Each structure stands twice: as C-alpha cells, then as structure tokens.
Amino acid sequence: MKIYVDADACPVKEVIIAEANMLTIPVVMVTSLSHFSNADDPPGVKTIYVDTGAEAADYRIMKLAEKEDIIVTQDYGLASLGLAKGCDVLHHKGFVYTNDNIDQLLQTRYLSAMARKSGKRTKGPKPFTFEDKEKFRILLRNILSEKLSD
Predict the structure, then answer these.
(1) Which of 2, 23, 27, 102 is most buried, taking the most CB atoms under 10 A from its CB?
(2) What are the residues whose beta carbons fall under 8 Å from the beta carbon of 31, sequence distance 6 or more?
(3) pLDDT along the chain (150 residues), means of 10
(4) DSSP 63
C-alpha cells in the first residue's frame, strides 16, 4: 500500500507524511515542475515531478496507483478514476470520495463550470481551517487503521 498525493495545492502534506511515517507507509507526492525544489524529500517520501499541463499529475497518479492504495486529491475527476481503480480516495477537507457521492460531486462541478461560462459568478471553496486539517488527520488515521487490520 502507498499513499499518492496530488500535491500541487494540497494543504495537508505534512499530516500525510507524519501519519504515514508512524506506520512506515510510503508516500508519493506528485507535483508539477513549477513547484520544483532542491530540498531533500523527507524520510518515506518520494516526489515525482510532472509537466505543468492541467492533468499531468492526475495521469501520473493513475499510472502508478494500484488497487487498495490511497489517493489524496481535491480533483473530482481524479477521484472518480481512483475509485474505478479500487483505491481509497480522500479529500483534504476530511471526507472520503465514494461511488455514492462522486456522481453528485461531478454534476455540481459541471453545473458550476456552465454557470461561469455563461457569465455568472459562483462561490469558491470556503477557506481551509485548522478544524479541516484535524478532520483530515482523524479520517486518514481511521482509513489506515482499517486497511492495516484487514
């Protein structure tokens, strides 16, 4: 089992690394070259850099991820692909993407895009809070605990 992170805008990278390191689970951060850093990766972490194209990180994660891996993303399209591959897919605000909620999330995204295209303004996401971070930490711990007890 590995944890793959759509890392460009992920605000919980340090939470993922800390929780994974406690259980010696490898973490793969996939990020665009525009976020390149010469810094060494933390223990247990591998960073993969991809082109800056819109879905480059998504494609790489889907190429690498295997059934039962964990994917952390805020991208509904990547979440849908990860679910189809048999991965557990988590959002950084502390919820799990499921086959029961992904269609509604994709539909909402589509309707918002259509509204913006027609000139309407849509609300953006609410600011990320400390409570969101802690909710994610608890979710990740629970998922890892479940997976390791199977």
Answers:
(1) 27
(2) 7, 8, 47, 48, 49, 50, 57
(3) 95 97 97 90 96 89 97 93 96 93 78 78 83 97 92
(4) H
Q: How many residues does the chain have?
A: 150
Q: Positive or negative, the Cα torsion across 17, 98, 66, 50?
A: negative
- pLDDT value, residue 42: 93
Interacting residues of 69 by C-beta distance below 8 A, sequence separation 6+: 1, 2, 3, 4, 87, 88
CA atoms within 13 A on the CB side of 28: 20
Q: How far apart are CA 105 and CA 109, in angstroms?
A: 6
Is-contact 102 76, C-beta < 8 A? Answer: yes
Domain 3-149 sits in CATH at: 3.40.50
CB 17 within 8 A of CB 45: yes
Residue 98 has a pLDDT of 93
Q: Which residues contact 86 (CB under 8 A, 6 or more apart)?
A: 67, 68
Confidence (pTM): 0.87
33 SS3 class: helix
